[in-house]
Amino acid sequence: MERVTGIGGVFFRSKDPERLAAWYEDHLGVTPVPLTYDEEAWQQQAGPTVFAAFADETEHFGRRQQQWMVNFRVRDLEAMVRQLRRAGIAVEVDEEVYPNGRFARVYDPEGNPVELWEP
């Protein structure tokens, strides 16, 4: 069976796409969509990717109308948390260490949940 080789993009609606793209670049290092085909898109490091559907009534994403959530792998969760907090961004750190790693959560300027995961 032929299989996909990875996620090629995450696409979602935004009230202010340019401002939101700048927030992701400034605070998480995710470069925005290239303006031309001559520019290179953000390159992620190889690693595990979880693709999972959640039950419609899940509370994992926060508010009920939230339909998606991005989970970013990070090398050093504590360093990322310090960086975000220095920038005035509220970070919720899950103090439990799970068999698959540690987690924290932030919300982007439009209220979308962003999970940070240190495997």
Automatic annotation (TrEMBL):
PROSITE patterns: VOC (PS51819). InterPro entries: Anthracycline_SecMetBiosynth (IPR052164), Glyas_Bleomycin-R_OHBP_Dase (IPR029068), Glyoxalase_6 (IPR041581), VOC_core (IPR037523). SUPFAM superfamilies: Glyoxalase/Bleomycin resistance protein/Dihydroxybiphenyl dioxygenase. Pfam families: Glyoxalase_6. Residues 6-119 form the VOC domain. This is VOC family protein. It comes from Kineosporia corallincola.
